[in-house]
Amino acid sequence: KAGVTQTPRYLIKTRGQQVTLSCSPISGHRSVSWYQQTPGQGLQFLFEYFSETQRNKGNFPGRFSGRQFSNSRSEMNVSTLELGDSALYLCASSLRGHTEAFFGQGTRLTVV
Amino acid sequence: AQTVTQSQPEMSVQEAETVTLSCTYDTSESDYYLFWYKQPPSRQMILVIRQEAYKQQNATENRFSVNFQKAAKSFSLKISDSQLGDAAMYFCAYYQGGSEKLVFGKGTKLTVNP
C-alpha cells in the first residue's frame, strides 16, 4: 500500500511568486491535513480537508489556501511568497480525524 | 487552547541503554489521543506510539512504551535497548476528536552514542 506522496520534494521560489504543493493521500483516506514546520515555530497546523470540505483552518494569513479534489488528493497554495514562508510543508492523511495520521516526506520550500 | 510542552530540547543515550523523553500537555477535555512521532533526517514523521486517554493501561510497542499520567497531564516516552536508528527528533502530539488537527510540542532531539 503506497504511503502519502508529496510533490515536489524541494522547491526554490522568489519573493512575490506563488507556489502550489501537492499531496496524494493513502488510498482510501479521505482526510488530508497540512502542517508548516520551521525551526523557530515548530509544527503548526495549516488546514484540514475531508471529502473536499475544509473542516478546520489554522492561524495563517489568507495567502495560504488549499483544496481537496474528489479523489482526495489535496493541494495547498501560497501566494505572494515571503522569506518567512521558507519551511518544510508536511501533509498527513487519515481515514477520519487524526486518530492515526500518516505523514508524507514533505516539501522543502525555500524563498529567496 | 490545548498546548503541548517538551521540556528537553536535546537528549543523549548510549546504545543499548534506556532513555525517557518527557511531555506535558494542557487540556480541559477528558477524551483525547496522545502520540509520539519520530522524525529522522529523512524528514518523514513516523508514528511511534499512540495512547487513548480513556484507556488506563499504558501503550507499548516493542521497545517503546509510555507512562501516561492523566491527572498530571504527563505523557513520557521510554525507549529501551536504544539503537543507533533511534536517533531522531521526537515530537509529542495531542488530538481531540472534532478539532481535526494535531497539536505538537517543540520536539526533543535524541542522539544515540555507540
Description:
The complex is a heterodimer of chains A (112) and B (114). Chain A contains no helices and 11 strands. Chain A is 0% helix and 54% strand. In chain A, a hairpin with a 7-residue loop joins strand 9 and strand 10. With 112 residues, chain A is an all-beta fold. Chain B is mainly β and 114 residues long. Chain B has a single domain, classed as Sandwich (Immunoglobulin-like). Helices cover 0% and strands 52% of the residues of chain B. Chain B is built from no helices and 12 strands. The A-B interface holds A 31, 33, 35, 42-43, 45, 48, 50, 55-56, 58, 88, 90, 92, 97-106, 108 and B 33, 37, 42-47, 50, 91, 95, 97-107.
Which helices and strands, and how do they pair?
The complex is a heterodimer of chains A (112) and B (114).
Chain A: E1 5-7, E2 10-13, E3 19-24, E4 31-38, E5 42-50, E6 53-57, E7 64-68, E8 74-78, E9 87-94, E10 102-103, E11 107-111
Parallel strand pairs in A: 2-11
Antiparallel strand pairs in A: 1-3, 3-8, 4-5, 4-9, 5-6, 7-8, 9-10, 9-11
Chain B: E1 3-5, E2 10-14, E3 19-21, E4 24-26, E5 33-39, E6 46-52, E7 60-61, E8 64-69, E9 74-79, E10 88-95, E11 102-104, E12 108-113
Main traits of this protein?
A: 112 residues, mainly beta, 7-stranded mixed beta sheet, 11 strands, 54% strand, globular, B: 114 residues, Immunoglobulin-like, 6-stranded mixed beta sheet, 4-stranded antiparallel beta sheet, 12 strands, 52% strand
